[in-house]
Amino acid sequence: MNRRRRIYEGKAKILYEGPEPGTLIQHFKDDATAFNAEKHALIEGKGVLNNRISELIFAKLGEIGVPTHFVRRLNMREQLIREVEIIPIEVVVRNVAAGSLAKRLGLEEGSALPRSVIEFYYKDDKLGDPMVSEEHITAFGWAAPQEIDEMMQLALRINDFLVGLFLGIGIRLVDFKVEFGRLWENDLMRIVLADEISPDCCRLWDVNTNDKLDKDRFRQDLGGLLEAYQEVARRLGILNENRPMMGATPVLVSSNTPSGKPH
Ligand code: UDP
User: Looking at residue 250, what is its pLDDT?
Assistant: First the structure.
């Protein structure tokens, strides 16, 4: 039985009270949702994969000096994080036309954008996360102008890093969504990367085949979502290639064994 205090339950994650003040435990569920949760399914093993993929990405971003809420992974589905005040804005970075941008501007899916483009969406399920401008964000007090600048700078650094990371494993980073939070240390406030970065919130296309290796497999009923996430994990070096693919029970490599050998 789980007797920890549950702080918040979202569509794909649960936040529990952490072991110390100022910490939380982020638990990755197997739920997949799309179209503002109108479409829902349980995909056994997805949470395990997202926990490991997000851990790897947050740890690497930390190494290049991007401040994040991530502390360490605790187990297959959970990670210890710093408690932050989430800024209610989804920051989307796009490199290639796809999804709502392609539709909105009549662009051909897959065409490269003239430069990376940042968009903001107001986090509100009831409204279906509407797109908003910097004017809306400051006028309604969701974030200060300086905080918007900081989020944009961080989002572009994250994009540059992730584009390279994924290109190195034969994957095109088409677009992704990130969230930021405010972290107080004494009287100082910092903006840090929060939430997760996983194939649930990125568009990842194989560079050779254009196969989708992300949540669009679920949104567009393409099937093979778990296999696609496993493929991303495998290319990132997280999933053990020497063991057979077990479908619903992916075999994961311990982060303490760089040789790739399981415990
Ligand atoms: N995205 C997300 N959560 C959302 C909306 C979008 O993670 O609530 C991600 C999505 O996976 C994609 C990027 O943000 O990588 C841009 O999504 P888009 O605006 O094209 O929306 P969609 O077509 O996915 O509804």
Answer: 58
Q: Cβ(227)–Cβ(212) under 8 Å?
A: no
Give the pLDDT score at 52. 98
CB-ligand 1 contact for 176 (6 Å cutoff): yes
The domains of the chain are located at 6-83+224-248, 87-206
| CATH of region 87-206 | 3.30.470.20
d(Cα 175, Cα 98) in Å, to the nearest integer?
A: 8
Nearest to 175, CA basis, from 235, 119, 106? 119
Look at residue 156 in the predicted model and tell me its pLDDT: 98
Q: Encode pLDDT of 200-221 as tens digits.
A: 999 999 999 999 999 999 999 9
Separation CA 13–CA 198 (nearest Å): 12
- CB neighbour class for 114 (10 Å; exposed up to 12, middle 13-18, buried from 19): exposed
Is there a contact between 156 and 116 (Cβ–Cβ < 8 Å)? yes
Ligand 1 center to 176 CA (angstroms):
7
Instruction: Please write down the HEC assignment for all residues of 39-54.
Output: EEEECCCHHHHHHHHH
pLDDT band at 263 (very low <50, low <70, confident <90, very high): very low
Note if the pTM is more than 0.90: yes
Helices (H), ranges, 140-179: 145-167
CA of 177 to the centre of ligand 1 (A): 6
CB of residue 129 inside a 6 A radius of ligand 1: yes
Domain 6-83+224-248 listed as CATH 3.40.430.10: no
CA angle 233, 95, 158 (to 5 degrees): 60
